Amino acid sequence: MADTIRPRDAGELRQAVEWVLAEGLTLDVRGRGSKLALGRPMRCDAVLDLSGLSGVVDYAPEELVVTLRAGTPLEEIEALLAQRNQMLAFEPPDFGPLLGLESGQGTLVGAVMGNLAGPRRVSGGAARDHLLGFSGVNGRGEAFKSGGRVMKNVTGYDLSKLVAGSWGTLAVLDEVSVKVLPAPDQTSTLLLRGLADDTAVRAMCTAMGSPHDVSGAAHLGDRTALRIEGVAPSVEARIKGLRELLAPIGAELEELGTLESRAFWRDVRDVVPLRAGANDVIWKISCPPTEGPEVVKRIKAERHGAEAFYDWSGGLVWLALPASADADHVLVRAALGTSGGHATLIRAPEAVRAGVPVFQPLSPALAALAARVKESFDPQGLFNPGRMA
Description:
Layout: E1 3-5, H1 10-23, E2 27-30, E3 46-49, E4 56-60, E5 65-69, H2 74-83, E6 86-87, H3 108-113, H4 121-124, E7 131-138, E8 143-147, H5 160-163, E9 171-179, E10 181-182, E11 186-193, H6 197-208, E12 214-220, E13 223-230, H7 232-246, E14 252-256, H8 258-269, E15 281-286, H9 292-302, E16 307-311, E17 316-321, H10 329-335, E18 342-347, H11 350-355, H12 364-377
Parallel strand pairs: 1-3, 2-3
Antiparallel strand pairs: 4-5, 5-9, 6-10, 7-8, 7-9, 11-13, 11-14, 12-13, 15-17, 15-18, 16-17
């Protein structure tokens, strides 16, 4: 079993990386371990456990900024923000139950390193769009900082956009600053019943292109959901406008109030509506919204038992497939055609993840660029080696 290193502050973190670098070892970098089953399996010499780097460094509600240490649980941050009626606008999902764990185990930094976002991604942006700055250690043992604790910061390169989505393969972060936003006073969800996938996607795209400021659009089986948030008079007016806009579709309409809506969209965020069996493999497919139904149609034509639902106005497809030795990765990626989309294997047994590309294979040009970036940050391959291979 690999040794575990638990730094208690930024100084000990840097010392740990320097020691590993000098010894020629590799590190399995983790916050609280909630996403270990996501990515290619790793064989590392030691575990770098960041759970000891926990706590809020600074919270300025009036500035809409919170700064925290890397091992701080996401639930702790959300509870703190709720006290001031604020929120993380990108709705970081909780994949714990999806990956066979209890809920509430993840960290905010883990969500940022995966660039994970929930239904509000279509209106509020991805995790990387909310990361203001960070400090950490690169694979050369050098401590460095990027960005800051303010909403506008133009000092140096914006490395925040680079580390978000790197899955801990470029640097180890010890502290991050993220922007927060006021939580909406009221939430309402308009449900359209009985639409086929392609009709539902057209309805969602129409709603997203309207002036009604839709903050969530998902299609789950026979339900197509559109979320409106804000102060009560505005929500009521925009829901009325959506009803009028979508009336020609002829669908049965239903409306969820604030409490029901919040529970509904939390489930969408955490992929609860996906009717996946315990042994099913799960894919996350990103593509142009109008391409989603055709992608799913191609897969279902070849694979009996496939289940799917759509988020991000159809641009995100959650797909469950019966277990197979190769997770049907050739079929799934071939179904993308020339759409320019990509597919990530979110859940599969370790043996399957070891044998297939978990992340979308890069073009030769992008692969070369990624290799140069990795060389700049971590030339010896210390951090999470092979996870994104």
